[in-house]
């Protein structure tokens, strides 16, 4: 904690703000990184959630391939490698990285980002094991269980026990049984890791981030535990909106009612994450429409913004704050 405090003091004394923008008191900027990834900042503290930018080319049953994607296709037995050039193009700084679970499309890029930025990685024991096994120093790792409520430099975060949701077996891995959710990424495993090694969930968390007067609830998948989120009343709910949410009973109405009908919902984990950022997301956008319609039906006053990659959404912490998509 002393390290965190000294870091914040240094930033304040140096007048450190992210280059290219400044945020007023009571403003927070949210940028979608694709998949379940987000950058959340008040201009001083930078929080990443599930930052996965490599977008490895893998088969997703039912989703159309990108004919323009000539990258090699990854199989279960291939070594999972981060695309450092893509990460470097978009991630310049991070103070904290919050991880919801240890599937490949959530954690693959975090060791490189953590080593590059010095960010503290917060997650389950499974996450800590993966990060440590991947060369992230212990001083940058913070293990949480769910139920924790942490005061950290520049913000606070409530760690919420959650659920992953339904995983159907992909046609190309039908012979391979997914590890049960309780399976934890092993300690003292040796990198590099294969794609199949990163199919371990390791338990799932959600996070209520309190930053600059704005309350942001972030999910990393298409499920939740209703009693754990009841009464949270976030200003912004970042909600898993991939097609598998339809397999959860009354998913959207139950969630919005429990949260007190937040004023802004941002869908997450809805895009095709096995294609480059430049590829068309037309198929995924069409799939998303039923989720948007469900939000509007359950909570007519809630605004839904479909985020665009790396285009900031600024939220103001006021009684009835204005929301802009910049």
Helix percentage range: 10-25%
Work out the strand percent: 15-25%
Count of distinct strands = 15
Q: Give the biggest beta sheet.
A: 8 strands, mixed
SSE string: HEEEHEHHEHEEEEEHEHEHEEE
Total number of helices: 8
Structural class: alpha/beta
Question: What is the topology?
Answer:
Blueprint: H1 2-13, E1 27-34, E2 37-41, E3 46-49, H2 84-90, E4 96-98, H3 104-107, H4 110-117, E5 120-123, H5 125-133, E6 141-143, E7 149-152, E8 155-162, E9 204-211, E10 214-218, H6 226-229, E11 236-240, H7 251-259, E12 264-268, H8 282-298, E13 303-304, E14 313-316, E15 323-325
Parallel strand pairs: 3-4, 4-5, 5-6, 10-11, 11-12, 12-13
Antiparallel strand pairs: 1-2, 1-14, 2-3, 7-8, 8-9, 9-10, 14-15
Helix pairs in contact: 7-8
Describe this structure in words.
The chain has 326 residues and is of the alpha/beta class. The chain has a single domain (2-14, 26-309), classed as Metallo-beta-lactamase, Chain A (4-Layer Sandwich). 21% of the residues lie in helices and 22% in strands. The strands form two sheets. It has an eight-stranded mixed beta sheet, covered by helices on one side. Strands 7-8-9-10-11-12-13 form a seven-stranded mixed beta sheet, with helices on one face. Helix 8 links the parallel strand 12 and strand 13. It is globular, with a radius of gyration of 19 Å.
């Amino acid at each position: 904690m002393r390290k965190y405090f000294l870091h914040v003091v240094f930033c304040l004394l140096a007048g450190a703000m992210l280059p290219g923008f400044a945020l007023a008191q009571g403003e927070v900027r949210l940028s979608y990184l694709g998949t379940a990834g987000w950058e959340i900042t008040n201009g001083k503290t930078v929080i990443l959630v599930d930052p996965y930018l490599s977008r490895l080319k893998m088969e997703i049953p039912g989703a159309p391939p990108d004919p323009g994607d000539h990258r090699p296709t990854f199989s279960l037995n291939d070594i999972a490698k981060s695309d450092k050039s893509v990460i470097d193009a978009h991630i310049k700084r991070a103070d904290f990285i919050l991880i919801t679970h240890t599937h490949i499309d959530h954690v693959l890029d975090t060791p490189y980002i953590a080593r590059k930025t010095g960010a503290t990685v917060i997650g389950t024991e499974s996450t800590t094991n993966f990060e440590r096994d991947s060369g992230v120093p212990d001083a940058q790792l913070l293990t949480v269980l769910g139920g924790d409520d942490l005061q950290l430099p520049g913000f606070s975060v409530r760690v919420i026990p959650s659920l992953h949701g339904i995983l159907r077996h992909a046609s190309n891995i039908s012979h391979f049984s997914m590890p049960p959710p309780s399976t934890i990424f092993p300690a003292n495993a040796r990198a590099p890791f294969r794609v199949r090694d990163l199919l371990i969930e390791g338990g799932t968390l959600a996070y209520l981030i309190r930053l600059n007067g704005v309350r942001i609830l972030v999910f990393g998948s298409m499920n939740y535990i209703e009693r754990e989120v009841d009464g949270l009343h976030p200003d912004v709910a970042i909600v898993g909106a991939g097609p598998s949410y339809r397999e959860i009973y009354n998913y959207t109405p139950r969630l919005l009612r429990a949260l007190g009908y937040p004023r802004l919902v941002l869908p997450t984990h809805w895009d095709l994450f096995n294609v480059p950022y430049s590829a068309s997301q037309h198929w995924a956008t069409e799939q998303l429409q039923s989720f948007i319609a469900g939000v509007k039906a359950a909570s007519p006053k809630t605004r839904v913004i479909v985020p665009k990659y790396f285009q900031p959404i600024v939220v103001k912490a006021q009684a009835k704050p204005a929301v802009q998509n910049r």
